[in-house]
Design a protein that fits this description.
This protein has about 500 residues and is mostly helical. The chain contains 19 helices and 2 strands.
């Protein structure tokens, strides 16, 4: 990395030294959320985990998960329209609840979003190594780490060259993985012929021991995790054209579009594979997307494999954007070290944040992946991430109610701003308990070491955040108050509103 850097810290100089304004549009931010959801990886690995419970009724479970996620996506979209800020969920919580809550949300969000790239790089490593070993037995199955490091280099380079390059890179990757799985899904539906049936949207094909609606519910709890990331467009608000309108469309559009993509692809594989034996479908082996592609469509499995690999890189890239922008937003108001608010003079990218993100990714990949094994490390990081992200979603639902009740009562719509947040909160509580391995439901498996370390890791990080919060509130309370600041709403920095909308 070369060239001098500039600071984006506070003050009236933000308009000239801040993130690059109007750099990207709806297409790029839409795919920022889409790729953050890792649709190909979710279809191939995450969603099949629900088949053990929902069986051949998995399409219904996915449809229920989609509806549940749309409740929260609606809340995020409403807040993104009113509060276009790089701080995203931290700003929403600060405005809707309290700046202290906003700080803690930002503290947790930066942490887990920084862990998503190493999570996906681990998947890139063991997926690539496993497939190469399967094709050529001479390739060592445990030689996964060079692929992970190569992915880290690609993501760092994309981030360094600025949000425009990174977002467009993500768009290309997102289009590829979606097209591959859609084409394959349509082919499967065609090959299924008379076996196409709407009964998979009922409860008659659930797995043994989880009959009826209980099996579908259990499956939906696991599949809801595939939707995590729909809010990832929000931290790019300050770099987006017409952010109030664009953010609202991107968040809702991504959740709805990819949700329907999940429904179509899951339906296709269910009716082709057979709904009454779908309970044994999984992420690997003959009973998997790659396995079916190998057996039924010749070399098409290569495209399926490449789409999954592509998805890991795209997801890691999107979440690196999220973590570095959220860190930038918190550093700008001096609740994180000012280093994270430093920008490249040409590309307007948060270079130090990208460097730290890369070091964290490489350190976590090699430390955990070699210390345990890449799959175990993946499960540990996934548990940490999902636990915090779902907790953040619940807080954002509450923040939506708080914001429109406390600050914008004249805009309050009872269904959109009260009912949907309540439904979103209720929908995510079972997923939170499941991710944490708390055996409240009979389908939840208690976590074992080292995956069980996820809870203490999250607890230690949040306690550290609470200590930092108390110190800052004592010494610099004004910094905590600034978590609620929406920089785009400041005429001194940005001039008149881009779209003529009234500012809160």
């Amino acid at each position: 990395m070369s060239g001098e850097v500039e600071t984006g810290l506070g003050g009236t100089g933000l308009g000239s030294t801040g993130l690059r304004r109007d750099a990207i549009g709806l297409r790029e931010v839409l795919f920022q959320s889409i790729t953050a959801m890792a649709p190909a990886a979710a279809v191939a690995a995450s969603i099949p985990s629900g088949a053990a419970f929902a069986g051949g009724s998995l399409p219904l479970a996915v449809l229920i998960a989609l509806v549940a996620c749309l409740f929260t996506a609606s809340c995020v979209a409403e807040l993104a329209r009113e509060l276009p800020a790089a701080g995203s969920v931290a700003t929403y919580a600060a405005q809707g609840l309290h700046p202290a809550v906003g700080f803690l949300v930002g503290w947790g969000y930066v942490f887990v979003e920084a862990l998503v790239p190493p999570l996906l790089l681990l998947q890139l490593g063991f997926t690539s190594a496993g497939t190469l070993h399967q094709e050529w037995s001479s390739y060592p199955a445990d030689l996964w780490w060079p692929w992970a490091l190569a992915g880290a280099a690609v993501i760092a380079a994309a981030g360094y060259f600025g949000v425009r390059a990174s977002a467009r890179f993500g768009t290309v990757l997102g289009v590829f993985e979606i097209l591959v799985f859609l084409v394959f899904a349509l082919w499967l539906i065609g090959r299924a012929g008379s076996h196409n049936t709407l009964s998979v949207f009922g409860t008659s094909h659930t797995a043994g021991g989880y009959e009826g609606i209980s099996g579908v519910f259990a499956g939906s709890v696991y599949t809801v995790l595939a939707f995590a990331g729909f809010e990832a467009a929000a931290p790019l608000a300050e770099e987006t054209r017409d952010p109030r309108r664009t953010m609202h469309r991107a968040v809702l559009g991504a959740a709805l579009a990819i949700g329907l993509f999940y429904v179509v692809t899951t339906y296709a594989m269910t009716v082709y594979f057979g709904p009454d034996r779908f309970a044994r479908f999984g992420a690997s082996g003959d009973a998997s997307w790659e396995g079916v592609a190998r057996a039924s469509f010749g070399l098409f499995w290569v495209l399926v494999f490449l789409a999954v690999v592509n998805s890991t890189i795209a997801n890691a890239n999107a979440c690196a954007n999220v973590s570095t922008r959220t860190a930038f937003a918190l550093a700008r108001i001096r609740v994180l070290p000012g280093l994270f608010a430093t920008l490249h003079p040409k590309y307007r990218s948060p270079v130090p944040g990208i460097a730290v993100q890369t070091l964290v990714a490489v350190g976590a990949v090699l430390g955990l992946g070699l210390g345990y094994d890449p799959v175990t490390a993946f499960l540990l990081l996934a548990t940490v991430i999902v636990t915090v992200v779902i907790g953040v979603y619940i807080v954002v639902n509450l923040a939506c109610m708080g914001y429109f009740l406390r600050r914008r009562r004249e805009l309050l719509k009872p269904v959109r701003h009260l009912l949907l947040p309540v439904l979103g909160t209720v929908a995510f509580v079972p997923a939170l308990l499941t991710a944490a391995g708390l055996p409240v439901f009979d389908f939840v498996t208690e976590l074992t070491a080292p995956v069980s370390y996820a809870g203490p890791i999250v607890g230690i990080w949040m306690v550290a955040g609470l200590v930092v919060l108390l110190v800052l509130m004592r010494r610099h309370p004004e910094r905590i108050a600034e978590t609620a600041r929406v920089h785009l709403d400041e005429p001194a920095l940005t001039g008149p509103s881009q779209n003529g909308a009234a500012h809160p």
